[in-house]
């Protein structure tokens, strides 16, 4: 059990978990790098750990290679209190790897090793549907939509959750190098756009998906659909913008010393899902939503002050301290 205990509402996160190899020196290319540090990564897994670190309750559904790296990742989930009954191992495929370079401004470039990796080979038969149906929230990204059989498994899991009346959360997490082309990425990501109750996109992703100016409200509005309860656009250190059926606004971010932006969006999403799991009247109550987004902004900001995603994910007290300090 996680620190959230059995009473906390369960968030099930679906998708990939992999190992990021990060150069031990920032600001150098992969070729120039002398050494690499292993860091667990994969957005849906980061979100699951972000939730337990904040005292919520989460489970992960995904597939690892039956190899040392796969078991290492499964252990990291366990150590962080993430429920693992949805985890599967594939004896015939490797755990995915990514080499990530940190440019001097903390932004990243990716080079992936997945041909095919175990996470891509999750099948419908691998799904723990009873786990999904016990969730209050089912969260996913778009990387699991890129290739079969994982795409079909993703769609089946989403259908099962929707039929059970579970809240659907989508963070597309655009990773262009993994898609066959930009067009394929746009089409694939938008193919499930009308399903979720909540979508989080970054300003860069708004620009990519709409091919318009992400700062213009009319551009963002083209991403709205009537099934949505909440659309959030994250603007990096500038904070975030929110849109519901009844209100919209902007919440400022926090100025911190950014070292590595890896996992910041996942820390933000995890924090927001913890709040939604506790109280889904947020979408009707702007004051409550603003508090939840302020807390989520703080979590995202803290996550950029340390290298790696999972080691940098904050606790609730760290986030509350930053919120209080800024006041």
UniProtKB/TrEMBL annotation:
Keyword terms: ATP-binding, Carbohydrate metabolism, Kinase, Nucleotide-binding, Transferase
Q: Which reaction does it catalyse?
A: D-fructose + ATP = D-fructose 6-phosphate + ADP + H(+)
* Domain Carbohydrate kinase PfkB span(s) in chain numbering: 9-315
The catalytic activity of this protein is classed by the Enzyme Commission as 2.7.1.4
Please give the biological process terms from Gene Ontology that the record holds: fructose metabolic process
Q: Which GO terms describe its cellular component?
A: cytosol
Among its keywords, does the record have Nucleotide-binding?
A: yes
* Superkingdom as given in the UniProt entry: Eukaryota
Q: Show the Pfam families listed in the entry.
A: PfkB
| Top-rank EC class of the record's enzyme | transferase
Among its keywords, does the record have Ubl conjugation? no
Listed InterPro entries: Carboh/pur_kinase_PfkB_CS, PfkB_Carbo_kinase, PfkB_dom, Ribokinase-like
Q: Which Gene3D superfamilies match?
A: 3.40.1190.20
Pathway(s) of this molecule = Glycan biosynthesis; starch biosynthesis
Q: Which family does it belong to?
A: Belongs to the carbohydrate kinase PfkB family.
Put simply, this protein is called fructokinase
This protein's species is Ensete ventricosum
């Amino acid at each position: 059990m996680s620190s959230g205990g059995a009473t906390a509402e369960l968030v099930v996160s679906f998708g990939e978990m992999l190992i990021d190899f990060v150069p031990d020196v920032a600001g150098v290319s992969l070729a120039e790098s002398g050494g690499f540090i292993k860091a667990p990564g994969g957005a849906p897994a980061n979100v699951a750990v972000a939730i337990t670190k904040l005292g919520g309750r989460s489970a992960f559904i995904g597939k690892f290679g039956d190899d040392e790296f796969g078991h290492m990742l499964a252990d990291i989930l366990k150590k962080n209190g993430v429920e693992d009954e949805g985890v599967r191992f594939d004896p015939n495929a490797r755990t995915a790897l990514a080499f990530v370079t940190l440019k001097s401004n903390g932004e990243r470039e990716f080079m992936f090793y997945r041909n095919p990796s175990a996470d891509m080979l999750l099948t419908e038969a691998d799904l723990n549907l009873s786990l999904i149906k016990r969730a209050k929230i089912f969260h996913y990204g778009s990387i699991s939509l890129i290739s079969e059989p994982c795409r079909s498994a993703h769609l089946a899991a989403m259908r099962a959750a929707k039929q059970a009346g579970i809240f659907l959360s989508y963070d597309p997490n655009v990773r262009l190098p993994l898609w066959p082309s930009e067009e394929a990425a746009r089409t694939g990501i938008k193919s499930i756009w009308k399903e979720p109750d909540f979508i989080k996109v970054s300003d860069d992703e708004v620009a990519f998906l709409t091919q318009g100016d992400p700062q213009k409200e009319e551009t963002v509005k083209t991403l709205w659909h009537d099934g949505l309860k909440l659309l959030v656009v994250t603007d990096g250190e500038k904070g975030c913008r929110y849109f519901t059926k009844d209100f919209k606004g902007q919440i400022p971010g926090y100025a911190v010393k950014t070292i590595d932006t890896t996992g910041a969006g996942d820390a933000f999403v995890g924090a927001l899902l913890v709040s939604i799991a506790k109280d889904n009247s947020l979408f009707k109550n702007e004051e409550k939503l603003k508090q939840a987004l302020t807390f989520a902004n703080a979590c995202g900001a803290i996550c950029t002050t340390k290298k790696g995603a999972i080691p940098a994910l904050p606790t609730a007290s760290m986030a509350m301290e930053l919120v209080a300090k800024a006041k």
